[in-house]
Amino acid sequence: MSTSMTQHIVIILTLWSAYFVLHSVLASLRLKNWVAHHFAGLMPAYRLMFNAISVMLLLPILWLSAQWQGEPLWHFSTPLWWLMTLLSVLTVIAFFMSLRYYDMDEFIGLKQWREGIDAVEDQEHFVIGDFHRFVRHPWYTMGIILVWSHELDPIMLTNAIMITLYFVIGSRFEERKLRRYHGEVYQRYSESVPALIPRPWRYLGKQQAQQLLQQQP
Fold first, then answer.
1. Domain that holds residue 123
2. Average pLDDT, the chain
3. pLDDT at 187 over 90
4. pLDDT at 217
């Protein structure tokens, strides 16, 4: 590997690390509580600003990754290439199918801004969609599949590793908030369904999922 490529990888690693730290801080209840206490008028727009900042901070990483693109470290055989392409397409379809289980206005922050909702805690209800019956964080699982289902050059391999690490670590931080929001019901759910990797022996049937949701206070 050339010296310039090594330097590029170090820069990408540094940018991802800074992004993850800032993203986690902005998503933390501690910061939200501080903003609510000192700048209460900003809270209805907090989620919207959080998402906008998250996207904007990604742009330099994506731009540099495109500029420093190199030769793939491996090549798929033709059958494997078609299999990985099919897997990617199915994952994208699954993502769009999963959207019906989320209030996207609320997820983006438009609802909070439009209705003047200033609550610190997220307002999303606990739902168990079709994919949630097999993994607790289906979007993270889909993201991991997408980043690893391609031929990767050194920069994209670095991106894939960092994104995967953040999904794994980030899911654990998110679990803390979800247990706080949804209590015992979420704890029972997490005991039945794995976080990121589906397992044939750990999932909820549709009737089991409905029964669990009915136990919400």
1. 3-213
2. 90
3. no
4. 65
CB atoms within 10 A of CB 44: 18
Amino acid type, 171: S
d(CA 187, CA 201): 18
Distances (CA, A) of 33 to 46, 51, 120, 216: 11, 18, 6, 25
CA-nearest of 37, 212, 192, 46 to 113 is 46
Beta bridge partners of 98: none
CB 148 within 8 A of CB 73: no
Token pair, residue 59, equals: 């742009």
Domain count, the chain: 1
Q: Where are the alpha helices (DSSP H) in 99-153?
A: 104-108, 110-115, 138-148
Question: First vs last Cα of the chain: how many Å apart?
Answer: 57
Give the model confidence (pLDDT) of 58-72 as tens digits.
999 999 999 998 899
Q: Quick one: 107 exposed, middle or buried, by C-beta within 10 A (0-12, 13-18, 19+)?
A: middle
